[in-house]
Amino acid sequence: MLSRTVLRRTRPLVSLARSTQFTRLNSSKPDPAEKVFKEYEKPLEEKEKQDHVDTLQGLKNKFSDKIQETKVKLGDPNVTEGMEKLAGREVFEKYSMKLQEKAKELGIPVEDLKQRFKDEIERVRTKLGGADPTEELQALLKKQEEERKKDGTIKIRGMRDPNAPEVPYKVLDDFIDVEKARHLPREDIIKIWNARFANNDRALHAVLTHLQFADLYTSAFKYPLFILPVPKPLQDGYELQYVQWQFVGPETINCMFTTLAEYKLHGEYASPHTTLTFHLELADDKDLVLMNGYVDKESGITMEEAHLLVVNLQRFYSGKYPEKTKLLKEFNAGDENFNIDELIQQATTV
């Protein structure tokens, strides 16, 4: 079994103030994604002066002529080395338009996606580290489509308060009595953990073995940043979600999601719509890594979309799929070969 010492060996801890806030992993490096936004940087700056855009649809409407002109000539993203400044914030415009254009180009309606996603997600709600998180995505996408029929708006929230007081990250003791749990059978701890969040309809929770989490951690340690697409049926395309892992404590690891639109506008002050926390306190003696998370109700992200993100997080970070690992590596290295079309394909096929 991979020891917990290995799991924690060298990644520096972020400050408590940033335990649920996006951060720069290397402030000494220039932003390698600046040139990706040359076509959109100026209009975006002007729009930011006008309340930072209320919705992505508003932004698209304002620059519809420019978008239509550039849709047909968007090529592979040209990103240089060193994506460590949270590169996702600088690829929003180009990638978002390319995603939506690709959906139309390939003619991938929701019904077709359902077939491609068949048997994808059944176990994600409580078994993030299960043997295979690839069942029942069909039901998930059906629920997602129903939600989007009610409200297809892509919401962009305001920035978080830069002067907000520091908030310590939560450890396992904030949810259960760890010392008492150490004297309980493993199965009893699992039941207690599941019951702890059963009545919260915005909560996510899961139970992993030490080795299952070690697989995720190995990839997260190497590739702490990524983007994942979420289908948006009413927009006839996808919305990119920015992913960042944070190693906030010796036994606590966070994974946060926000829309790339919000990260583009607000940078490190963007608010995560979904935050997952992995607790390692019982990893050694009980072979348990407990995960809990929360999805912001005001974010516009449905629970089905959050579950889809968690499924793909596991698929890309499990280390079991070479093509997915290749995309993680390319994105974090700022490789010019990183390809959104390939990302969509890998995220939407079993």
In a few lines, what is going on in this structure?
With 350 residues, this protein is of the alpha+beta class.
Describe what you observe in this structure.
The chain is an alpha+beta fold. It has helices at 4-7, 41-48, 56-62, 64-71, 92-106, 110-116, 137-150, 178-181, 186-196, 210-222, 260-266, 283-286, 303-317, 322-333, 340-348, and strands spanning 203-208, 225-232, 237-249, 252-259, 274-279, 289-295. It has a 6-stranded antiparallel sheet, with helices on both faces. Pfam families: ATP11.
Features:
about 350 residues; 6-stranded antiparallel sheet; disordered N terminus; transit peptide; Protein ATP11, mitochondrial; mitochondrion; ATP11
Q: Which whole number gives the mean pLDDT?
A: 70
Write down the oligomeric state.
single chain
Q: Identify low-pLDDT runs.
A: 1-18, 29-94, 120-127, 129-134
For the secondary structure, the number of strands is: 6
- The share of residues in helices is 25-40%
| Computed CA radius of gyration, to the nearest angstrom | 20 Å
Beta-sheet strand percentage? Answer: 5-15%
Domain count, please report it: 1
How are strands sequenced across the largest beta sheet? 1-6-5-4-3-2
Number of helical runs?
15
Give the terminus-to-terminus CA distance: 28 Å
**Major sheet:** 6 strands, antiparallel
Describe the protein's topology.
Blueprint: H1 4-7, H2 41-48, H3 56-62, H4 64-71, H5 92-106, H6 110-116, H7 137-150, H8 178-181, H9 186-196, E1 203-208, H10 210-222, E2 225-232, E3 237-249, E4 252-259, H11 260-266, E5 274-279, H12 283-286, E6 289-295, H13 303-317, H14 322-333, H15 340-348
Helix pairs in contact: 6-7, 7-13
Protein name: Protein ATP11, mitochondrial
InterPro entries: ATP11
Organism: Candida viswanathii
